[in-house]
Design brief:
heterodimer, A: 436 residues, mainly alpha, Cytochrome Bc1 Complex, Chain D, domain 2, two-stranded antiparallel sheet, 18 helices, 9 strands, 44% helix, 6% strand, B: 243 residues, elongated
């Protein structure tokens, strides 16, 4: 090939590349195009009051309030696998808050994930859920936030690793994972279900943004189907949000409706106690919800389809032998686990893991104990904690933190997962280390 | 017995045997654990480190909390919960507890009274102890440094309503607190008087004061002094501030 031909070929390739890149950019822009919204008339005192209730249902203050900071003034860091995202100031300060935002601006943030100046918001702000919120509710929320005392507190810049916070990365993420919800909510109503179920679906999928934790995320933090709640790891928080679609995890399809309601209202139930991030949700949000909304959420959660049973073990020879003999457990670890239980746990949780109802949760039959993922069990043991302090349980009992060595934690949890009729896989010291 | 009656008796027997078998299969029903309805029982997470009597059992770093003024303890619970003092365990435990419960917890530990042991003290050179005593009892007017005793009670056992005692605390804990005040890692409600005092102390002063305070015998019983009748040498946001 002559020098001239090579040069020619190179020029052609460059032109093709440029064309492909512009096509990609155009496709991204098309997929990411956000229509303008128009302002609606302000709703007055009634909208403010309704917005206040909606803000509690959405638990906005939890992220938008720093530890010890002023409510809704932002500044709390949300740790993600991509870096830390700092929640913004939602008070109506003109320069640092949303004082200059119209309700159309606010709607665009909730529905399209765009800030007032048009830049793409980081999806740690759960707009993939909030896009299901109606314009009317968004306007009421806006009216409520406008009624708060303005706090002058500049937003803190996000600390995301390159390239995650860049406009291009966000455009790609949105093209892959984000579709704005319908402008008119009546399009999402399931005519085969009653109004209670539909209200529950609206709260769980939309403002409640349950999926932000209970949805399973892929490597880029993308979520699947808006209705799927099949369990998500929260590695930065050190918790696992169990699946709401699996009766072996946090699915409530087999619970009595009143017990689900009790858990969301008081933080405790005969079936378990809300822990970790869920305790915060109960304390700051669900305990304050009106009974009708709670019942709607319960009806929706109880209706979630359980996942199909796993394929028969016979297809996997290894699993088959395990199914015959049960998981292999180290005998000395089991003996050590039993001793540790007697020393540290038995006094409160009982000889048979029966616990004391409403005070110390039963461990026998507890899904936190037997769930495949032992993260929460290990976390509760090492961190301790109080049951959620709610209006019904304002002086909760608590559990001390037990700072045991890795091998002891493995032995103790392995023993609990094999006792009282349990048959859950053993926990290794390596697993303990990775969940710390 | 006629045939009918015999059939009924047989049926009843079978039914009883069946029920008995069912009961066996279900296993013995365990009675729930009996839990006393006391604050001490509710506060097991606190006493695991700070001791059942509020006496520290958690090692050189964990302070005793028994008998400290309720106002001080409440203030510290708020500080940990709201991020002005930093300790992951304390923050995790207190995160979601309401003010009313924290006030009750503070009250509970403030009323506990028991003989204090003097914490084990590593030996300190007499010159260092003398300097520590001078600072604690008399301060250093040349540097506008108030004595510890001016605010923390003449006996250094604290003062009502919210001034903590300084005796019976491990040296490492005292050093860590003074250091944290100086570097800004520990805060109180503004104006933050103790931060100001710690900044006026040199690192050697910190060592001297911590060494001397931790070497003192604890008066029995150890009670905070009544509220001071003269104004504090510095303005303090936390001392008895109304809530």
């Amino acid at each position: 090939m002559s020098l001239h031909a090579v040069r020619h070929w190179k020029r052609g390739a460059a032109a093709l590349l440029a064309l492909a890149a512009s096509l990609l950019l155009w496709a991204l822009w098309r997929g990411d195009w956000t229509p303008a919204a128009t302002d609606t008339a302000p709703g007055g005192a009634q909208a403010v009051e309704r917005g206040a209730r909606l803000a509690v249902a959405g638990n906005c203050a939890a992220c938008h309030t720093a530890r010890g900071g002023l409510p809704y003034a932002g500044g709390r860091g949300i740790a993600t696998p991509f870096g830390t995202v700092y929640a913004g100031n939602l008070t109506p300060d003109d320069d640092t808050g949303i004082g200059r935002w119209t309700n159309a601006d606010f709607w665009r943030a909730l529905h399209h994930g765009r800030s007032r100046d048009g830049h793409r918001l980081i999806p740690a702000f759960p707009y993939p859920s909030f896009t299901q919120v109606t314009r009317e509710d968004a306007d009421a929320l806006h009216a409520y936030l406008r009624s708060l005392p303005p706090v002058r507190q500049a937003n803190r810049a996000h600390a995301l690793r390159w390239p995650y916070g860049s406009p291009v990365a966000l455009a790609v993420w949105r093209a892959l994972y984000f579709r704005p919800g319908p402008e008119d909510i009546t399009n999402t109503v399931d005519p085969n279900r009653g109004p209670e179920w539909n209200r529950g679906a609206y709260l769980v999928r939309g403002l409640g943004h349950c999926q932000a934790c209970h949805g399973r995320r892929d490597l880029l933090g993308g979520l699947g189907d808006a209705a799927a709640l099949e369990g998500g790891r929260l590695p930065q928080q050190g918790w696992y949000a169990p699946s709401l679609a699996d009766p072996a995890e946090a699915g409530v399809m087999q619970w009595p409706a009143d017990e689900v309601l009790r858990l969301l209202r008081t933080g405790t139930s005969t079936q378990g106690v809300a822990q970790g991030p869920m305790a915060e949700v109960v304390v700051r949000s669900t305990q304050h919800l009106p009974e009708a909304d709670l019942r709607a959420i319960v009806a929706y959660l109880r209706s979630l389809p359980a996942p199909p049973p796993p394929p028969p073990a016979a297809s996997k020879p290894q699993a088959a032998s395990e199914a015959e003999q049960g998981p292999i457990r180290d005998r000395s670890a089991m003996a050590r686990g039993e001793r540790l239980y007697a020393d540290h746990c038995r006094a409160c949780h009982g000889d048979q893991g029966q616990g004391a109802p409403g005070i110390y949760p039963a461990l026998a039959g507890s899904r936190m104990v037997t769930m495949d993922d032992p993260t929460n069990l290990l976390r509760v043991i090492t961190q301790g904690g109080f049951a959620p302090a709610t209006a019904d349980n304002p002086r909760p009992y608590g559990m001390p933190p037990f700072d045991l060595p890795d091998a002891d934690l493995a032995a103790l949890t392995t023993w609990m997962r094999a006792s009282w009729g349990h048959d859950a896989a053993p926990v290794s010291a390596a697993q303990v280390i990775t969940t710390r | 017995m006629n045939r009918q009656a015999r059939a009924v008796a047989t049926c009843a027997g079978l039914l009883a045997a069946g029920l008995f078998r069912l009961a066996l299969a279900a296993g013995p029903v365990q009675a729930p654990v009996q839990v006393p309805d006391t604050l001490a029982q509710r506060l097991a997470p606190c006493t695991a480190c700070h001791g059942v009597e509020g006496r520290s059992v958690g090692g050189a770093y964990v302070p005793r909390i028994a008998g400290k003024p309720a106002g001080y303890l409440f203030e510290q619970l708020l500080n940990f919960r709201d991020g002005r003092r930093h300790n992951a365990t304390m923050a995790g435990l207190l995160d979601l507890l309401p003010d009313a419960y924290l006030r009750e917890i503070a009250q509970h530990f403030s009323t506990l009274d028991f003989p204090h042991d003097r914490p084990a003290v590593p030996g300190a050179p007499p010159a260092l102890l003398a300097r520590g005593e001078a600072l604690a009892r008399r301060g250093d007017p040349a540097r506008e440094l108030p004595a510890c005793a001016e605010c923390h009670g003449a006996q250094l056992t604290g003062a009502l309503p919210a001034m903590p005692g300084l005796l019976g605390l491990p040296r490492d804990y005292l050093l860590a607190q003074l250091g944290a005040w100086r570097t800004g890692a520990r805060h109180a409600v503004a104006p933050d008087c103790m931060s100001e005092v710690a900044r006026r102390l040199s690192p050697d002063d910190l060592l001297a004061v911590a060494a001397w305070l931790s070497a003192q015998a604890v008066p029995q019983p150890m009670r905070p002094a009544p509220p001071p009748d003269r104004p504090a040498p510095l303005r303090c946001g936390s001392a008895g501030h109304p809530r």
